[in-house]
Amino acid sequence: MNSLKLKVELVELYSLKDFVEQNYKEDMLVNLVVEEIFVNIVNYSNADYIIVNIEYYDDLIIEFVDNGIKFDPTSQEAPKKPNDIEEAQLGGVGILLAKSYADELIYAYENGENHLKIIKKGYDE
């Protein structure tokens, strides 16, 4: 498993994107899921750091670890589909995207840290 510790700043998206591509491959959907989760942590967690772990053998496993406010994204309901653009609300899309992409989405709160694992089983290049 390869790890990267990031500051809780949006500018770190560049380092995160490079890290994902070095340890996996360029994949627009994976990049979008990773970006959405990272941005949510930056914007809402009050964390001091974010650690991203990537493991790829038969399954792709991406884990986010942060020491921010306890938050379980797996327990969140999907946002309601708006009837038109004027009813649309911001937020909730990153979690929905991760839930629809992942075969498993696992959350744990351990030792003052949020751990979110996104698992895509049998993911071939």
Automatic annotation (TrEMBL):
UniProt keywords (A-Z) are: Kinase, Transferase
Query: Where on the tree of life does the source sit, at the highest rank?
Result: Archaea
The GO terms this record gives for MF are:
kinase activity
- Domain Histidine kinase/HSP90-like ATPase residue range list: 30-120
Q: Does the keyword Transferase apply?
A: yes
Keyword rRNA-binding belongs to the record: no
Report what the protein is called.
Histidine kinase-like ATPase domain-containing protein
Top-down, what is the taxonomic lineage of the species of origin?
Archaea, Methanobacteriati, Methanobacteriota, Methanomada group, Methanobacteria
